[in-house]
Specification:
This protein is α+β, with helices and mostly antiparallel strands. It has 2 domains: 113 residues, 4'-phosphopantetheinyl transferase domain (Ribosomal Protein L22, Chain A, Alpha-Beta Complex), CATH 3.90.470.20; 89 residues, 4'-phosphopantetheinyl transferase domain (Ribosomal Protein L22, Chain A, Alpha-Beta Complex). Helices cover 38% and strands 25% of the residues. The protein has 7 helices and 9 strands, in the order βαααβββββαααβββα. It has a 4-stranded mixed β-sheet, covered by helices on one side. Strands 6-8-7 form a 3-stranded antiparallel β-sheet, covered by helices on one side. Helix 2 packs antiparallel against helix 3 and helix 4 crosses helix 6. The longest helix is centred in the C-terminal third of the chain and has 22 residues. The two termini are 29 Å apart.
Amino acid sequence: MAAVYILNCKDFKPYLLSLQSRISDKRRQRTLKMRKKDPQLLCIGAEVCLSVALGLPLPLEYQTEQGGKPFIERAPQFNISHSGDYVVCAVDEKPIGADIERINRMKESIFNRIASPREKEKAATLKEDQLLEYYCTVWTKKESILKLTGEGIRKELSTVCTESEGCYHTEKTSDYVLSVCLFENKEIETHFITEEILKKHFNI
């Protein structure tokens, strides 16, 4: 069974900052160059969330495939995404892609640029108060399928139709939309990382 782990970095800021010295050197050096605290927390949170998801201790040393997709030797496959206050990590034995975005960041102009004809037809049937969430759902589904396949930004988003292809799990968390994509339909468990989990996993 696949799983997705969700970490609200803002809620656990003190814990993440206390773990900064324990993350991988490469990621820690990156955080030290960041002037703003929010991106710094997301950077720390990405490795912390993955550590919990994989059940592995810090630090985590990543390698990358030719297309840039990260992996860890002898560990399940994973994919990380972050937006606003949240970091998510999707894990499975087989390839998996994930994306999370804040709903209010989506605009009609962005949707029109990345949407397929069928998705535009679907949008035309929705009420105005449903559109932003649909725009965000389409975006996260497209991002998750491209991260699943490793194609990333090399593929034109308008050529991907989320109304007709892909095995997706999509859910709304607060004012965010999260989508996970797999090559086959299967159940996905959602886990919210809590204070208790952080204390137990990292012995803090």
